[in-house]
Design brief:
four-stranded parallel beta sheet, 5 helices, 2 domains, Elongation Factor Tu (Ef-tu), domain 3, 18% helix
Amino acid sequence: MKTLLEEVRNNESIYVPVPARIVKVETITVLEKLFTLALPNDLNLSHEPGQFVQLTVFGVGEAPISITSSPSRSHDTFELAIRKVGAVTKVIHEMGPGRIVGIRGPFGRGFPLACFRGKDLLLVAGGCGMAPLRSLINQVLDERGNYGNVQILYGVKSPTEFMFKDELRLWTQRSDIELHLIVDAPDLGWDARVGYVSTLFPEVKVIPAIRLRPSSAPQ
């Protein structure tokens, strides 16, 4: 199975979007929808957690979108959590399964997973910042034995803005991670923490590693 970048390099068309089919669409908040996409000809996106793609709506424009699915999950499809904030995203929010969009990428540097192995992890997200972080979290959970303590802090303006609510419930039930949720403006049904996500930092137990650099002074 070829990766998307291998196919693009073979055709010398790195700036030409590859057609991708929308397989599934889910509404996850008032502003965000989760799109599952498939590339043609058994191509694999082959991304790293933290990377993004350039998404083209033909005839409208192009926008950078974080990849929210984990490479450790399905290799036949990938997921984009898209907030409706501009011309391109407004049009794609009106699209359903079967429609075709363009994909270029993946681009950007992913999270340095090799450096994380064997260490405790503190993962912090605010609002739609959970979209790229979800890719890393699910990768870590699928390789749970490779990491130490895992703590996740996630804050939003109001409870309705939490993304991936079903997964948040599952993460809360796990005994091998800690998930802390907080909102700026609670509603009548919210009975947990209130404030900015940064207000949780003093409660987090973190033991930072101290690395000694070799002295540059003459001997």
